[in-house]
Amino acid sequence: MFSYVPTGVCSKRIEFEIKDGNISQVLFEGGCDGNLEGLSRLKGISCGKEETSCPDQLTLALKEWERKNV
Question: Is the pLDDT of residue 49 over 90?
Fold first, then answer.
């Protein structure tokens, strides 16, 4: 599992696994119900007055994984 510590959101950690180029598992530690709602859009979602959200942070985590693994 790849582990990512998000910033500017209430989630404390995002973990995911990629197998054969597909995300096979995603876990948010903490956060709100908006995590699941936002997964359909991901990038650019804000949360309340924050400029980012847990799904938006997941896109950053995926980019970091890609940078380290490709």
Answer: no
